[in-house]
Amino acid sequence: MTAFEAIGVVGGGAWGTALANAAARAGRSVTLWARDASEVATMRDRRENVRRLPGVRLEDAVSPTADLADLRRVDTALLVVPAQALRGVALALAPVLPTGCPAVVCAKGIERATGSFMTDVTSEAMPHATPAVLSGPSFAEDVSRGLPTAVVLAAAQESLAEALAQALSSSRFRVYHGVDMRGVEIGGAAKNVLAIAAGIVAGRRLGESARAALTARGFAELTRFARAFGGRPETLMGLSGLGDLILTCGSAKSRNFAFGVDLGEGLPVGEAGHGKLAEGAFTARALVEMARSAGVDLPICEAVDAVLSGRVGIDDVVERLMTRPLKSEG
Ligand SMILES: NC(=O)C1=CN([C@@H]2O[C@H](COP(=O)(O)OP(=O)(O)OC[C@H]3O[C@@H](n4cnc5c(N)ncnc54)[C@H](O)[C@@H]3O)[C@@H](O)[C@H]2O)C=CC1
Ligand SMILES: O=C(CO)COP(=O)(O)O
Question: Start and end of every Glycerol-3-phosphate dehydrogenase NAD-dependent N-terminal domain (predicted)?
Fold first, then answer.
């Protein structure tokens, strides 16, 4: 197994920049690709991603570029663009990467147009790459400041997941490894929808008890969905699943949670989140449609989708959730 010395980070947003720094601190040399040439020029000059991650110095081992061809010699690529942009970027990257190169999905979402998971999008768009996925409770700001963080990286082959985890880990960024790609990616995608729900509860001032109940019942939804789509329930008990749900359903720093707070306070969908990326808003519809087709009950995610589509008002949705037929907790 190679040592994975040269890492390519594809996507120059907050998370791509934070991961580039994390990989550099783990001793890797990093090429950070962003599509916007002027942002790349600024990153090179100022050693800072002024727009997406202000106040954080780029590590010396990070080389920003706007040219995808500069990734042709990397031995691992981290895919860190928004979920709905992943396919396009992966298609462009496919001819550049060496055959067999691991392509680690770091985006959290489901492709809206096709209802596809991110690792499947990656396999389709980059048939010569080896898909993997990294997820877990990790705000870009925390990682970039070097605060202690733990995530999980899964690949079909355990030895590959372990080698990649080794390559990216440092004393501040601990990467666990596993083989349940589906479970890990479902945890990351579904928690964003539930974080919007938790934000709505906070914005509507429904109370801390309601938020805790929603988080716990949301976790039940996430686990049911994962089981139906081939993820292992025990994976969802871990960092990508319970861990990320606790983080994003409880923190105003989460963009999905903040988007929900805006909705709860009465802002229209088009204004909620103030233009920041809230992946759950794109994933909600795909998630509920997939669940319906598999006969999986996701009442909270359904409620989020109904609010986002404007079909039902927030107070009606809460009433509906609270008056569903009583059932056993399992
Ligand atoms: N910010 C965070 O704390 C974390 C984010 N993530 C995930 O990482 C992914 C990216 O999020 P962030 O970097 O935070 O978002 P961001 O909003 O900070 O940046 C998104 C970046 O993607 C670029 N982009 C958008 N469309 C593109 C396209 N078609 N081609 C090329 N580049 C494109 C934008 O120019 C921007 O640089 C999301 O799926 C998010 O859920 C995961 C863990 C933590
Ligand atoms: O996924 C994240 C932390 O694990 C980031 O959450 P937001 O995208 O909601 O900010």
Answer: 7-160
Q: Which tens digits make up the pLDDT trace of 133-175?
A: 999 999 999 999 999 999 999 999 999 999 999 999 999 999 9
Residue nearest to atom 8 of ligand 2 (CA): 255
The answer, as to whether pTM is greater than 0.90, is yes
**Element (DSSP H or E) covering residue 155:** strand 149-155
Q: Is the Cβ atom of 225 under 6 angstroms away from ligand 2?
A: no
Nearest to 14 by CA among 161, 140, 152: 140
First to last CA, the chain: 43
Among 25, 28, 52, 191, the active-site one is 191
Give the Cα-Cα-Cα angle 285, 246, 228 (nearest 5 degrees). Answer: 45
Closest alpha carbon to 166 in 45, 274, 23: 23
The tokens of 110 are what? Answer: 């489901």
Q: Which atom of ligand 1 is found nearest the CA of 109?
A: 39
Catalytic site residue 191? yes
In order, the DSSP letters of 153-188 are EEESSHHHHHHHHHHH--SSEEEEEES-HHHHHHHH
| φ, ψ (nearest 5 deg) of residue 7 | -110, 135
248 lines ligand 2 (CB under 6 A): yes
Paired with 7 in beta bridges are 30, 76
What ipTM score was computed for the predicted complex, to two decimals?
0.99
- Is the Cβ atom of 249 under 6 angstroms away from ligand 2? no
What are 105's two structure tokens?
Answer: 């999905």
Q: How far apart are CA 168 and CA 164, in angstroms?
A: 6
H or E element, residue 299: helix 299-308
For 268, left (φ over 0), alpha (ψ -120 to 50), or beta? beta
